[in-house]
Design a protein that fits this description.
Mean pLDDT of chain B: 85
CATH superfamily of the largest domain in chain A: PAS domain
Number of strands of chain A: 12
Number of domains of chain B: 3
Mean pLDDT of chain A: 85
Radius of gyration of chain B: 23 Å
Largest sheet of chain A: 5 strands, antiparallel
Number of strands of chain B: 19
CATH architecture of the largest domain in chain A: 2-Layer Sandwich
Strand order of the largest sheet of chain A: 2-1-5-4-3
Oligomer: heterodimer
Number of domains of chain A: 3
Order of helices and strands of chain A: HHEEHHHEEEHHHEHHEEHEEHHEE
Helix content of chain B: 25-40%
Low-confidence stretches of chain B: 1-39, 54-61
Strand content of chain A: 15-25%
Distance between the termini of chain B: 31 Å
CATH class of the largest domain in chain A: Alpha Beta
Strand content of chain B: 15-25%
CATH superfamily of the largest domain in chain B: Dipeptide-binding Protein, Domain 3
Structural class of chain B: alpha+beta
Low-confidence stretches of chain A: none
Radius of gyration of chain A: 53 Å
Distance between the termini of chain A: 37 Å
Number of helices of chain B: 17
Largest sheet of chain B: 9 strands, mixed
CATH architecture of the largest domain in chain B: Roll
Chain lengths: 484, 525
């Protein structure tokens, strides 16, 4: 599950990154555009307002400034209050003399007799006084306002005064700030919605089909080749799905063919083993007679070698038959309840001469009442191989001990020897067919199929078999389990 | 305040005399009410200069139409009017939330319906009608033809003619409760304003208490005390000792001294108060027996004008209070001011020439009536010195406030110094009250104490009273001032700048009308 999520996130992250970049870029573009538009509107409105109010400022100046300053102050104050951006008005004549400054509303009428006449000092403003409507921008760190210089043209076309209106950028800054936060908020909302939508789309278009594919591959790996995934798209995933479906079909065909070949092979081996086994009986019997009747020592030795090889061939044939039998799904085994201790003791009796020859002590520690439901022949094959190996690879005067106990619904049986022991590598390959651990085992008494047969037999019953060894010359213990 | 006469003060005199009988009774009662129950509260103490011998005592505070210093500051905070001036003489709504004019003569006021008087009585149109009927303003009464109550909160005031400055007149029409006034004669005074009358102490202070149910702003101070000082040094000492937080009328030296101090602030504002010399314009009066009154001759008046050295007067006066020379009774803040009018230059030879033309080459003796207070007495002496140079011998008649008031009210002075404080920002009041020929029935010339009369000015007065277009009114008034100037209907001396000092506990913004309203004062954080 985590793997699928990470695929989604891997796909989502670059998309998210691109989205953020795109949205931020768009946002800045929108903010810039809106800000410029707001500034243009502010200046246009300011120009309109200045143009419309100039007459009011000038005519009331003529009427009231020298005769009713309080009234004039009130008029200008009301005029300023009509435009939230306007914070100051000056009436200046074309020579640059300041006739009125709205600061006088608060500070009282300017007294030229005491403080002398006031003149504009800014050369740009001074030169603009004789022009048509002029905008003087002072939007910098120190000042945050602009001025509109509005000439007042009187009815007889004279131009004596210009009205200079000071407009603050405060409301514009506030508006830009609001735009910024609105766009930022919308950007975040859009990014979140986009992420959710992309997540869902990716899920539907990529993650879910990929997950289905993955599950299909898992099922294929488990051998179920019949399931097919519906192809819902004609893209790469559709193509991949189609390929996986085709692969499933191909694998199914290959498996069927392989099963057929294995069956044919098994039949062939069985047939071959039977065909080989049939003449081996008379040969062995005849060889016994010939050896018994042969007096020539040299011939007798050659006949002994021949007899050993025939025995080996017989064992090989028998083991191959056993292995083929165990591999064949068609073979149905008859099961019977077997007392394990007794069964093993009976088997050991047949090998007492071998045990005595090597002075080996045999200890059967299995409880008397332990039984298992198993095919006797197959159990005999297992026990025979394991006991035989324990005797064969044991040292002279060694010990073979057999133990069994119940564990988690299984019977766990252990056959331990004190023989030559095995390395880890040898243990790893021990259950492979025809594997012989070392050169010393390349003799005619071992076919290299014993443990493979044991493994097949145990696994046929749902059990497990394994070897543990502390190393060379420290003996081994073969464990196997059988369901109870 | 040095001294100035207001038409309303003139009207106050008679009621004062009548009410003086009650002084002892009321002041005794009020003394008992005085206590210290507001020691823990926020209180503002304001020191006001009171002209000597102007001891208007408690009962006069019940006179809602009284504008003497002790009364006008408390009254401005106890009462509301239908409309009021803001700090720059702009008319703003008060008890009338709006008004409109169904025709040129009708002013329809829509009154607020959520107002209660400080004693809990409801405010209604009946109270407005009653107040107008009871007020002591013949000029306003003369122009009001009818009052019609439309409903409890709508009232029509119909004027006899177009009245351009009608709302100005209403700004100081403090509304009283009809029922309360009938029952109690308005004692103790009750209005709808932000402060209630609290007590009166020792004849020299009035304390107001905040009216917590005031309909408009929330005021800061729980109590406000106006303390009156008839001695300048005493007022300054009180401020230095922290007995008062705010004082008015500083002399230039103290103004500069307080300006240097870190814990004190000073502020000044143009004070619409002009001092001028006026005359008896009648050819014959009791002072000249069978002879012609010399100042009735325009050449003599011009001679006096030329003879006055205004520069010296301003320099000397500025040792006591901040003043500036003026050329007419209004300054340029007032609608109607004529900026072209300049003072007669100080020119002794021209003065002598005028005297010669008038036939007074050898001069004459005349009595100058003035209120004996500094710096008016100094100004009077300087004028006397100036006139001596043109052979006019001035007999100094230094009077108390009431003596002067009585004398000029009785038109019993040939030559006097007086002040005029504007009540509005329109010079029409000068024409109506000072320059127009005396016409009691029309309410004109109430402050025309020397019976000046000029038909052209009367004509202009009539016109500006019937005209609402300033483009027509202003040139008319300017023409009128020019005529008065030519006639030397008065000789303007100077205008005052009102000055204040206050400690760093508070901030204060003076009003153009110089009335101290307590919402002009705030506490510094």
């Amino acid at each position: 599950m985590k793997r699928y999520l990470s695929v989604k996130i891997k796909l989502l992250m670059p998309l998210l990154f691109i989205l953020v970049i795109v949205f931020i870029a768009s946002s800045f573009f929108i903010i810039e555009r809106e800000s410029n538009e707001a500034e243009t509107t502010l200046i246009e409105n300011a120009i309109s307002f200045s143009s419309l109010s100039a007459e009011n400022v000038v005519e009331n100046y003529d009427l009231y400034y020298q005769s009713g300053f309080y009234k004039y102050s009130e008029i200008i104050e009301e005029l300023i209050s009509l435009n939230r951006d306007l914070f100051k008005i000056q009436l200046i004549d074309v020579n640059g003399k300041i006739l009125f400054d709205s600061d006088e509303i608060l500070g009282g009428k300017y007294n030229e007799n005491i403080y002398h006449e006031r003149y504009v000092s800014d050369p740009e403003l001074l030169s603009s006084l004789t022009k048509s409507t002029y905008t003087l921008d002072l939007n910098n760190k120190e000042y945050q306002y602009f001025m509109i210089v509005q000439p007042f043209i009187e009815s007889f076309n004279a131009h004596r005064y210009s009205v200079v209106s000071f407009y603050s950028y405060d409301s514009l800054n506030m508006e830009v700030q609001n735009i910024f936060f609105e766009v930022l908020l919308l950007t975040i909302v859009f990014i979140i919605i986009s992420c959710i939508m992309i997540f869902l789309v990716l899920d539907r278009l990529i993650t879910i089909p990929v997950k289905k594919l993955s599950n299909k591959v898992k099922v294929l790996a488990e051998g179920a080749f019949d399931d097919t995934i519906p192809i819902n798209s004609n893209d790469e995933i559709g193509e991949l799905t189609s390929s996986v479906n085709k692969m499933g079909k191909d694998l199914k065909k290959s498996r069927e063919r392989l099963e057929r070949l294995i069956e044919e092979k098994e039949n062939f081996i069985v047939q071959l083993s039977h065909d080989l086994k049939t003449p081996l009986g008379p040969i062995l019997n005849l060889l016994k007679i010939i050896i018994a009747n042969e007096d020539d020592k040299e011939n007798k030795e050659m006949l002994d070698v021949m007899q050993k090889n025939v025995f080996y061939m017989k064992n090989l044939v028998n083991n191959s038959l056993d292995l083929a039998r165990l591999n064949s799904p068609n073979v149905i085994s008859n099961l019977s309840e077997v007392n394990i201790k007794q069964f093993i003791n009976n088997h050991v009796k047949n090998k007492l001469h071998l045990i005595k020859n090597k002075l080996i002590s045999f200890k059967n520690n299995i409880p008397d009442d332990l039984t298992v439901n198993i095919n006797e022949y197959e159990f005999e094959v297992v026990i025979s191989n394991l006991i035989q190996n324990a005797i064969y690879y044991n040292k002279k005067g060694g010990i073979i001990s057999v133990n069994a106990h119940k564990e988690d619904g299984y019977l766990k049986i252990a056959i331990k020897d004190t023989g030559i022991g095995m390395t880890k590598e040898q243990i790893e390959h021990a259950f492979e067919e025809f594997y012989k651990a070392d050169v010393s085992r390349h003799n005619l008494s071992s076919t290299g199929l014993g443990l493979s047969i044991c493994k097949r037999a145990i696994e046929k019953y749902g059990g497990r078999i394994w070897i543990e060894s502390e190393g060379k010359k420290k003996g081994i213990t073969v464990f196997f389990t059988l369901p109870r | 305040m040095i001294f100035n006469i207001k038409k309303k003060e003139l009207r106050t005199i008679i009621p004062l005399i009548i009410l003086i009988v009650n002084i002892v009774i009321f002041s005794g009662c009020i003394e008992k009410q005085q206590n210290n129950d507001y020691q823990e509260e926020e209180i503002i103490r304001i020191g006001i200069y009171l002209p000597p011998n102007n001891n208007i005592t408690l009962p006069s505070i019940t006179d809602f139409d009284n504008y003497s210093p002790q009364i006008k500051y408390p009254s401005a905070n106890i009462y509301d009017s239908l409309v009021e001036f803001d700090e720059k003489y702009k008319i703003i709504p008060s008890l009338a939330e709006s008004w409109h004019n169904p025709d040129n003569f009708t002013w329809r006021f829509i009154l607020r319906n959520d107002i209660k008087f400080q004693n809990g009585y409801n405010f209604s149109a009946e109270d407005v009608k009653y107040t107008i009927e009871k007020m002591n303003n013949s000029r306003l009464l003369s122009i009001i033809e009818k009052i019609i109550i439309i409903d409890n909160y709508t009232i029509d005031i119909i004027t006899s003619k177009v009245e351009p400055t009608f709302l100005n007149c209403l700004t100081q029409l403090y509304i009283i409760s009809k029922k309360y006034h009938i029952d109690t004669e308005n004692f103790p005074p009750v209005g709808t304003g932000p402060y209630m009358f609290h007590n009166y102490s020792n004849g020299n202070s009035i304390t107001l208490k905040k009216y917590n149910k005031y309909w408009k702003d929330d005021f800061i101070f729980d109590y406000a005390t106006f303390r009156f000082y008839d001695n300048y040094e005493e007022k300054i000492d009180a401020f230095n000792l922290g007995d008062v937080d705010l004082i008015d009328e500083l002399n230039p030296a103290d103004y500069d001294r307080f300006r240097q101090l870190n814990d004190t602030a000073v502020v000044n504002v143009s004070y619409p108060n002009v001092y001028y010399i006026s005359f008896d314009f009648k050819e014959y009066n009791k002072y000249w027996n069978e002879e012609v009154n010399p100042v009735s001759n325009v050449s003599v008046r011009r001679a006096i004008y030329y003879a006055i050295n205004i520069t010296t007067i301003i320099e000397q006066t500025n040792n006591y209070t901040i003043v500036a020379p003026v050329s007419q009774l209004v300054n340029s803040n007032i609608v109607g001011c004529n900026p072209k009018i300049k003072r007669f230059e100080y020119n002794r030879s021209k003065a002598l020439q005028c005297m010669k033309e008038a036939g007074y080459e050898h001069g004459f003796e005349i009595e100058l009536d003035f209120f004996n207070t500094t710096p008016i007495n100094i100004v009077s002496s300087l004028i006397a010195d100036n006139l001596k140079e043109i052979n006019i011998s001035v007999k100094m008649d230094n009077l108390t406030y009431y003596e002067l008031l009585q004398k000029i009210l009785n038109h019993d002075s040939s030559f006097f110094i007086i002040g005029w404080q504007m009540e509005s920002r329109d010079a029409m009041e000068i024409f109506n009250d000072v320059l127009s020929s005396v016409n009691i029935s029309k309410g004109y010339g109430e402050a025309n104490l020397g019976y000046y009369s000029n038909a052209k000015i009367d004509n202009i007065t009539e016109k500006i009273n019937n005209e609402i277009n300033d483009k027509i009114r202003i040139p008319l008034m300017q023409e009128g001032f020019q005529i008065a100037y030519q006639d030397v209907a008065y000789i303007p001396i100077f205008e005052l700048r009102s000055t204040y000092a206050f400690n760093n506990r508070i901030s204060f913004t003076p009003r153009a009308d110089t009335i101290i309203k307590l919402n002009s004062i705030s506490i510094n954080s």
